[in-house]
Amino acid sequence: MTAIEFNYALQTNTKTLKPFAMRLTKNYDDANDLVQDTLVKAFLNKDKYADGTNLKAWLFTIMKNTFITNYQRMMRKNTIIDTSDNLHYINSSDSIVQNDAYGNFANEDITKALEKLDDTYKEPFMMYFNGFKYHEIAEKVAIPIGTVKNRIHLARKELKDRLKIYSNTQTV
């Protein structure tokens, strides 16, 4: 593939890169920057492109890797490292006052919601909650694995409806 053909192929694939960049960055300007970085890297590394392979997939891979690298770089840059001598204060729980009232109310409501569940749903749900695998639950309860999955799903749905008061709250 000549340089002109490669450049033309890059230009024709630019439109397909932008939606993917928007999904990754969730920001119009960052997406445009990511597309530009991808095209620059592709152009600089055109000798590594194997002629006859899927150029679009190659560009998407470059874009994904560029995004991940930039994200990791940003996370490292935002990490604060404290080199002070008073590190024991950072992890000290002596100055923290716990208020368990919210947690106690939530636990009571969860217990009540679980008690109101029909036993056909509660038993598989509680077994799954306690760490049993689907196939183990199916064997113990003697029902098909699809039925186990369905009952756990329905139990979750019912609990979610009963505990929707907690859906938009944050624990303090």
TrEMBL record:
It comes from the Bacteria. CDD domains: Sigma70_r4. One of its GO terms (biological process) is DNA-templated transcription initiation. Gene3D superfamilies: 1.10.1740.10, Winged helix-like DNA-binding domain superfamily/Winged helix DNA-binding domain. Keywords: Sigma factor, Transcription, Transcription regulation. Residues 13-73 form the RNA polymerase sigma-70 region domain. Pfam families: Sigma70_r2, Sigma70_r4_2. GO terms for molecular function: DNA binding; sigma factor activity. Residues 108-159 form the RNA polymerase sigma factor 70 region 4 type domain. The keyword Transmembrane does not apply. NCBIfam families: sigma70-ECF. Belongs to the sigma-70 factor family. ECF subfamily. This is RNA polymerase sigma factor. The lineage of its organism: Bacteria, Pseudomonadati, Bacteroidota, Cytophagia, Cytophagales.
